[in-house]
Design goal:
The structure holds 3 protein chains of 3 kinds.
Chain A: H1 23-36, E1 43-47, E2 62-65, H2 71-81, E3 86-92, H3 93-99, H4 101-109, E4 115-120, H5 150-153, H6 159-163, E5 169-176, H7 180-198, E6 203-209, H8 213-216, H9 220-234, E7 238-242
Parallel strand pairs in A: 1-2, 1-3, 3-4, 4-6, 5-6
Antiparallel strand pairs in A: 5-7
Helix pairs in contact in A: 1-7, 3-4
Chain B: E1 3-7, H1 8-18, E2 23-26, H2 33-42, E3 49-52, H3 56-68, E4 73-77, H4 80-94, E5 99-105, H5 121-126, E6 137-138, H6 143-160, E7 163-169, H7 170-174, E8 176-180, E9 208-209, H8 216-237, E10 240-243, E11 250-253, H9 256-271, E12 276-281, E13 283-285, H10 289-295, E14 301-306, H11 312-319, E15 326-330, H12 339-350
Parallel strand pairs in B: 2-3, 2-4, 4-5, 5-7, 6-7, 11-12, 11-14, 14-15
Antiparallel strand pairs in B: 1-8, 6-13, 10-12
Helix pairs in contact in B: 1-2, 1-6, 3-4, 9-12, 10-11
Chain C: E1 2-5, H1 15-19, E2 25-32, E3 38-42, H2 53-56, E4 63-66
Classes of the chains: A alpha/beta, B alpha/beta, C alpha+beta.
């Protein structure tokens, strides 16, 4: 039976994430892939503004704090200066799909050899649970107190499907981290993204459906149910684009 | 030293490359487009990287990432574009990242005009981003200075780990003058900066490039340490040039291209028997206060002239501690003042 | 096969209890850790087969499976 221990690329420290928040699982999965690729020394991670703003303390590789939404541009600057480095961004849905959507689309359009880990929990977590571009119709948030009304608040953005239309993209895959099986699929996706990057075959984005027990007002286990019942129908997991962009 | 006839914008870009800047991130905006175009032509030929970003915001954040790896890099824009970059500039200052940011000023506010202007003085010296920060600002007034100050800006940026601005204007950017360049400095060795986040190679502790400090003790200490460096910059880099100041009754203070026009006006005034000297700051931050006081030793009045409604005039009053009457004459909206207009103003200041 | 919990690191989120195929993980309510959380507990160590599914679902890397 496999022993199970903390990956070396994951710092041995307490995180500030709420109990049951699946950010922690996603962090570990990334760190496991970095360990398996022996890439800890050549990896540079870019963390955003949002719940994962402190992620620079949680990865044992060089880390850079980006301003809200701009990680893909920062990652571009890093990768173009040091093409031999493994560069990933770690972004929430407010960061990537709202303020930073121009940056992510153009990093993809340029086919930057970077990997974006996009954590979609349908809300702005750090600031207390506001409506995000990915908030579902009818979902109650701090800024859609009567439930997101598509007549006035518009419709959620399906980022993977959008990114799949861009030729610079080698991988656009949506995964979830709701049970061991989906966690292992998520890990394979991250590994694929990093491999495309290492082979200079273009931009990769892995959208990871994630929970936010605190702002959803649900227990961690009930949050998993909510993700399955409400989010999966709107955001089906799967590969939306895969194949070397160049 | 071979000389070539070049536009100010292109001379600046060439000087940056020769200063070892092989990474440039830009976005189209008049009147600085020649910088972007020149970089797109030259950098690929020297193994450098040119990216036209999705916006000025994208560009400044690419500079942030590139600078974080310890690599010399630059961006350029004009007034509205600089406004878009100010959040990024604040982050660059807060994360102690060296880089060069060029503003080829145009008329403002708003969409303003594409004609020359100096109306971004306050922005450049006071408001390049939120928080306690200062950004060193060089003010060229010739095509040669567009080149020389670029090299100096990169050295200052690296020496004190800070973004540095070159504040030019559309006149300087578009005019052609002979210029010569120092020999090319090899692109600064990559990644030799110990603080850089470019992969620890399992050979050193990890580096974090960051400006977030949630604990007040840490942020205050971080800021205070940076202000010690600003103090050193003020002692070492404040610079100015003055002419005919000894025994002058009136000193005309101006920077950038307006300073050249002010010099002609001062010549006309002296020809008319008015003892007139000129003062030109080469750096706007740090503002050369001591040099100004020395230049005004014998002056009875000071005239400040700018292509704006008057912004540097405040710094002149501050430097002189309001001990001398300071008057202002300027044209704005994209107008370049004529020497005669400034001369008329000088004359009016002598009438009792 | 040994299920080892980092008592101080556990936040009592219970995701491990949902993942355990043997249903031998619970959230105990006798002792809180320094952060004030009731933590996970294995009620039948012998029944543990070391599959580590609990550890896979733990957001805080608080569970180790050692041989």
């Amino acid at each position: 039976m496999p022993k199970f221990t903390r990956p070396r690329a994951l710092a041995d420290t307490e995180t500030h994430y709420c109990p049951g928040c699946t950010h922690g699982i996603i962090h570990r999965v990334i760190a496991e892939v970095i360990d398996e690729m022996g890439a800890q020394g050549e990896t540079v991670g870019i963390c955003p503004v949002g719940c994962s703003v402190l992620a620079y303390d949680y990865f044992n590789c060089d880390m850079i704090e980006a301003s809200h939404g701009r990680s893909p541009a920062v990652a571009t600057g890093v990768k173009r200066a040091r093409p031999d480095r493994l560069v990933f961004t770690y972004q929430g849905d407010g960061d990537l799909a709202a303020i930073g959507i121009a940056e992510i689309i153009h990093a993809a359009a340029r086919g930057e050899n970077i990997t974006a880990i996009f954590v979609n929990n349908t809300t702005y977590g750090m600031t207390g649970g506001q409506m995000a571009p990915t908030t579902l119709p009818g979902q109650v948030t701090q800024t859609s107190p009567y439930g997101r009304n598509t007549a006035t608040d518009g419709f959620p953005l399906r980022i993977c499907e959008i990114m799949a239309q861009i030729d610079g993209v080698a991988l656009a895959e949506r995964v979830a981290v709701i049970d061991p099986k989906s966690v292992s699929t998520a890990k394979k996706a991250v590994r694929k993204g990093f491999e495309f990057q290492k082979n200079k075959q273009g931009f990769s984005i892995i959208e990871v459906l994630s929970t936010c027990p605190t702002n959803w007002g649900l227990t961690p286990l009930k949050s998993i149910e909510r993700l399955k019942n409400d989010m999966l129908p709107y955001y089906p997991t799967g590969v939306y684009r895969e194949g070397a962009a160049r | 030293m071979e000389r070539s006839l070049m536009k100010g914008n292109e001379a600046l870009a060439e000087a940056a490359i020769r200063a070892g800047c092989a990474h440039y991130f830009g976005y189209p905006i008049t009147p600085q487009n020649e910088i972007t175009a020149y970089m797109s032509k030259r950098l690929p030929k020297v193994g450098g990287v040119f990216i036209q970003a999705e916006s000025e915001i994208g560009a400044i954040n690419m500079v942030y990432g590139c600078a974080a790896t310890g690599t010399r890099c630059m961006t350029s824009s004009s007034s509205p574009g600089i406004s878009l970059k100010t959040e990024g500039i604040s982050y660059l200052a807060g994360a102690d990242l060296p880089c060069v940011i060029v503003n080829v000023q145009r008329g403002g506010p708003g969409l303003g005009s594409i004609q020359p202007s100096q109306a971004d003085y306050w922005q450049a010296t006071r408001a390049l981003g939120h928080g306690d920060l200062r950004i060193p600002v060089f003010a060229p007034s010739t095509v040669q200075e567009m080149a020389d100050m670029t090299g100096k800006a990169f050295d200052l940026a690296d020496e004190y780990r800070t973004p540095v601005m070159i504040l030019a204007d559309g006149l300087l950017g578009q005019m052609m003058e002979p210029v010569s360049f120092p020999e090319e400095k090899a692109p600064a060795a990559r990644g030799e900066k110990a603080w850089a986040a470019n992969g620890h190679g399992n050979a050193r502790p990890k580096n974090i490039v960051n400006s977030l400090y949630l604990q007040p003790e840490k942020l205050e200490q971080n800021i205070k340490e940076r202000f010690v460096r600003y103090g050193e910059i003020e002692k070492k880099y404040a610079d100015a040039v003055s002419d005919n100041a000894d025994g002058a009754d009136i000193i005309v203070a101006a920077y950038g291209s307006t300073a050249r026009i002010a010099r002609s006006a001062a010549d006309m005034a002296r020809a008319a028997g008015i003892k007139t000297g000129t003062f030109r700051p080469l750096t706007l931050y740090p503002f050369p206060e001591k040099a100004l006081r020395e230049a005004c030793a014998s002056a009875k009045k000071v005239l400040v002239t700018e292509m704006s409604m008057g912004q540097m005039v405040d710094d002149v009053k501050l430097a002189l501690e309001c001990k001398l009457p300071v008057e202002f004459f300027g044209r704005t909206g994209g107008f370049v003042p004529a020497p005669s207009e400034i001369f008329e103003k000088i004359k009016s200041m002598t009438e009792v | 096969m040994k299920w080892v919990l980092n008592f101080e690191r556990c936040k009592g989120c219970a995701l491990c209890t949902g993942a355990c195929p043997k249903k031998i993980l619970v959230i105990q309510e006798e002792r809180i850790n320094a952060n004030g959380y009731y933590t996970a507990r294995c009620v039948d160590a012998d029944a543990c087969v070391g599959c580590a599914l609990c550890a896979v679902m733990c957001p805080d890397c608080a569970i180790e499976i050692t041989d």
